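MODEL INPUT / OUTPUT PAIR
PAIR INDEX: 1
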Amino acid sequence: MARRAPLTFLLVSMMLACGLSGCLGDEALDLLPEKKGVPGGLTLACLRSSMYTSMVIEIDHEPGYRPFTSSTDMLVDRLEQVCDKPSGISIKYSEVSFDHEGTWSAQDVRDKGWETKDQSPRDGTTLYWQVLFPAGTYETDSVLGVAVDASTVALFSDSIDEADGPFGRPSVEDVENSVLVHEVGHLLGLVNLVYQSPVDHEDDEHPGHSNNDESVMYWAVESADLSNFIFGELPNEFDADDLADLAGLADGSIAIRDQLWS
């Protein structure tokens, strides 16, 4: 798959612009035989080291859909910033064929994810999270990424690659960087998915997302000033409120719910 560098500001304005039925897959339920949990259901497993001392991000991608190295490097950096994993956080790549036709639903992502997982998310002292990079698009074509359970997210590169922009900024690589961190941010429980922040930084009209346009968890990377897309930078970092929430969850000062392990 050829990666295209430029992207129109219209597509960028749709990035992360999704509510709980968009980039947070609906019906993210605990299903037998192993509990899959909700996005945020393994937050403490990541933030603390008392049970899991290392972490592996399994990248399952179709041929031609391997993510940019900058995206996975950035993801590791962001996770190392907040997750206590003294034995390290690493990336494991697998090229797979998902054998899926048509658009993807949240349930499709969940089913294919669990079919291709190399390990249970909780294996010994290692925590495993999974990112799918499938061919095709989500059923809501404005959605570029989706979190479907406690350990599984997907990014839809075809939706990211389709458009050309007049100035080549932000690039496809920039968008992928931000979407990847954003979706894994939902696995960390952001924003208010499995807790209630003491700070009012959740967007009222877009639950699960930040109201700060400088946070990677912002509900949409858009502004009334279109130069934010063409000349500015997309957010790809957790802001101070996001980091404070994660620190409070880690030390127990913020109550948490729906954990598969605590």
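PAIR INDEX: 2
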Amino acid sequence: MTTPVQKAKAHKRQIVKARKRRVIGIAGCSGSGKTTLAGELARTLGGIHFHLDSYYLDLGHLPFDERTRQNFDDPALIESPLLARDVASLARGETIERPVYDFATYTRVTDRTERVEPAPFLIVEGLFALYYPELLPLYQLRVYIETPDDLCFERRLKRDIEQRGRTPESVKKQYEATVRPSSLAFVRPSAAHANLVVDGTGALDWKVERVVTELRKRGLLTGLA
């Protein structure tokens, strides 16, 4: 028999699920500053920074040498249907189990997922956040960060040398072979889907203010618990 306390808790859960979640998509080329902006927005708004990298396809069926030769700047390597389903679930206030990807082996970790709880704001960020048609209807705001190629490369070079132990020569080779061609083919054209284009050369606090101001104009900062 259900007690009054249990009924009250169940009713509260229903109310929490019914609350409107705001989903923001942020895209830009590698080195554009999208990850930094998404992280700061998540902190400012009390939301979730939701990166697309967890949804790369499991390449365990390929020999390791062949895995390393895949172009991870191609949107075909992301499992976009699963990504869209998980984003839609979070937007409805449902908890998901997100895949865990091992970039050392280019495979998903077997029998392990990451639980993600819904929050008032979901910041979906990645190269292809504005590329997949199935994602676009889920966003209340679509943001593209416009950053010149030379600055994107400078930032990526610094990051890959300092954080990933890469040599300048290897970074430049990869950038010219796959990163920039893919950005021209897939990422930059996705800017046409943006509601707001932000200058990637500006200060972080200015970029955050641009997005928050746009949210306010659209009435997306009201009606949240």
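PAIR 2 NOTE: Confidence is low (pLDDT under 50) at residues 11-18.
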